[in-house]
Design a protein that fits this description.
Elements (H helix, E strand, L loop, with lengths): L4 H21 L3 H17 L29 H42 L10 H10 L2
Length: about 140
């Protein structure tokens, strides 16, 4: 049998518990009384549970130092969530629009260069000619 360490630890714990339970049944009554008295003395010396004072401010989150617009139904709280999302969406739309315009401009430059060139546009469709142009630049 090949047990994992966790399984072996659990088996060991069960064996120890079983041995302690068997040993507890064999303890003489005088020893049990002394143990009970020692427990009572220890419990009487235990410090009383005192509530600890803690400052709890409603709405304290990471990055929020306790000042919050998060009242029930507060329009400022809702605006605090919606406004960043709106800015993000507008920003992403702006980036997309800018990249599309740049792509159109690049394609227009390529089209203008092909049309102004002395070669007919069919020459660019010839794969041998494209290889020649690639090698000619080296």
């Amino acid at each position: 049998m090949n047990y994992s360490k966790e399984t072996m630890d659990i088996d060991f714990a069960y064996k120890v518990r079983h041995a302690l339970n068997q040993s507890a049944e064999k303890i003489p009554a005088q020893t049990l009384d002394r143990l009970a008295n020692a427990r009572k003395i220890a419990m009487s010396r235990k410090k009383a549970d005192t509530p600890s004072a803690a400052l709890a401010i409603r709405g304290v989150l990471a990055g929020n130092a306790g000042f919050s617009f998060q009242g029930p139904g507060s329009w400022m709280g809702k605006l605090g969530v919606v406004l960043p999302l709106l800015v993000l969406i507008v920003g992403l739309f702006g980036i997309y629009h800018y990249e599309e315009q740049r792509r159109i401009r690049d394609l227009a430059d390529i089209d203008a260069a092909v049309l102004v060139d002395e070669l007919p546009p069919d020459a660019y469709l010839d794969t041998g000619f494209t290889a020649y142009l690639n090698n000619a630049g080296e």
